[in-house]
């Protein structure tokens, strides 16, 4: 449970006990409130544990890893020569002296020197580019799981705040009943307090549905077949000061490093294109059988020259344009990532401001409660004012929980852009 919410509710109860005597049943109720608050302070699993499980099991990451494995295997695929050609013929018909009776030949075409090596380097560059995609996928999964975790935290803490406020309203209801008995309040005040409890219980039921839906999403990110309950951290505290953001480190982000790898791919493609535009040659042998004459074995050499083929010149121009395209895409991605990082920093700062504001509001709400309880001692309490202050206090508590959750969700976004590298 949020420590601040716990302190605020505990303070309200202490005020009630210090300003007037409550019947034994009310004191028992207050004891139940404390038990309810304390029950939330249990063991919680570490978020990093869930992240490691998600990285290991998430199908999106597994698919990217398979793509990298395929790219790596292509290195072996390109390390081959063209098929060896075999041919043969046999003369059918009347045999004549000195005439060729049959022939058999074998021919192996060979690429230009260094072509196979260039193909391997091109395939290796493609594999390296796919490897960067694995890092991007891991960062995205870490961010998605972290944000889902903090949404679960927000929902759970809102439920706890609603529970504690319902318990307080029950205490106020008993106070109102006591005031009605002595003629210091009307039955309408009791009904208002009961209706307010019904409203909070309704909100809690809606939050239960929200929690179930978010818990399903959280489990699916980790690729769990069954929806498993998780233990959420007891409390999150906004640090007093944030670590300064180094925007220059964003240039090492894998989404930008990917363009460096793609440039290497195009470089190797250009080298390969030059090798393939060179002449190809082949070596072989032909064996000829003659009638009434010695058989002959004839070595052969062939060469292929792309004299009228504009294919390789076109590919060279395409590679040059590809370099320019990658430079433009990298600049666009850099601008986009910088803007997104700046927006995340702004949103986190806004969450901090909201957190601090709600903290001040809660202190003032506590002072208002003290004044109202003093009025109760003199028999002049207005339960409509009690409801107004309670509603304001609840809203401040909810706003503060949202601010804490938003702060850490935006922190996960910032970590995606400049966070440590995931192994």
From TrEMBL:
SUPFAM superfamilies: Outer membrane efflux proteins (OEP). The keyword tRNA-binding does not apply. GO terms for cellular component: cell outer membrane; efflux pump complex. This is Outer membrane protein TolC. It is found in: Cell outer membrane. GO terms for molecular function: efflux transmembrane transporter activity; porin activity. The lineage of its organism: Bacteria, Pseudomonadati, Bacteroidota, Flavobacteriia, Flavobacteriales. InterPro entries: TolC-like (IPR051906). Keywords: Cell outer membrane, Membrane, Transmembrane, Transmembrane beta strand. It comes from Aequorivita viscosa. Coiled coil: none annotated.
């Amino acid at each position: 449970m949020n420590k601040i919410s716990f302190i605020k509710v505990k303070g309200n109860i202490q005020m009630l006990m210090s300003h007037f005597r409550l019947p034994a049943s009310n004191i028992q109720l207050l004891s139940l409130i404390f038990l309810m608050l304390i029950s939330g302070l249990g063991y919680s699993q570490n978020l990093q544990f869930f992240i490691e499980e998600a990285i290991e099991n998430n199908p999106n990451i597994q698919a990217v890893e398979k793509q990298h494995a395929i790219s790596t295997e292509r290195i072996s695929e390109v390390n081959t020569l063209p098929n060896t050609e075999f041919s043969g013929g046999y003369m059918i018909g009347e045999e004549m002296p000195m005439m060729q009776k049959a022939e058999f030949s074998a021919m192996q075409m060979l690429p230009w020197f260094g072509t196979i090596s260039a193909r391997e380097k091109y395939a290796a560059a493609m594999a390296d580019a796919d490897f960067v995609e694995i890092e991007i996928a891991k960062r995205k999964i870490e961010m998605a799981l972290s944000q889902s975790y903090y949404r679960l935290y927000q929902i759970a803490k809102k439920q706890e705040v609603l529970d504690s406020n319902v318990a307080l309203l029950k205490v106020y209801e008993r106070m109102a009943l006591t005031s009605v008995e002595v003629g210091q309040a009307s039955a309408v005040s009791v009904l208002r307090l009961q209706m307010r409890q019904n409203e909070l219980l309704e909100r809690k039921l809606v939050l239960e549905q929200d929690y179930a839906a978010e818990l399903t999403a959280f489990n699916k990110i980790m690729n769990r077949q069954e929806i498993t309950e998780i233990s959420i951290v007891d409390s999150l505290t906004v640090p007093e000061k944030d670590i300064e953001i180094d925007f220059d480190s964003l240039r090492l982000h894998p989404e930008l490093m990917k363009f460096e790898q793609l440039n290497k791919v195009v470089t190797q493609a250009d080298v390969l294109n030059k090798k393939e535009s060179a002449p190809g040659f082949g070596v072989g042998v032909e064996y000829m059988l003659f009638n009434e004459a010695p058989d002959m074995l004839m070595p052969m050499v062939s060469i292929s020259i792309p004299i009228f083929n504009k294919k390789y010149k076109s590919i060279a121009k395409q590679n040059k344009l590809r370099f320019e395209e990658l430079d433009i895409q990298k600049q666009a991605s850099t601008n986009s990532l910088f803007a997104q990082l700046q927006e995340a920093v702004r949103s986190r700062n806004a969450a901090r401001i909201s957190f601090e504001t709600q903290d001040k509001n809660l202190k003032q709400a506590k002072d208002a409660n003290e004044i109202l309880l003093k009025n109760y001692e003199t028999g002049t309490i207005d339960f409509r004012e009690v409801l107004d202050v309670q509603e304001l206090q609840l809203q401040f508590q909810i706003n503060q929980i949202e601010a804490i959750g938003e702060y850490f969700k935006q922190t996960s976004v910032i970590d995606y852009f400049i966070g440590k590298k995931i192994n």
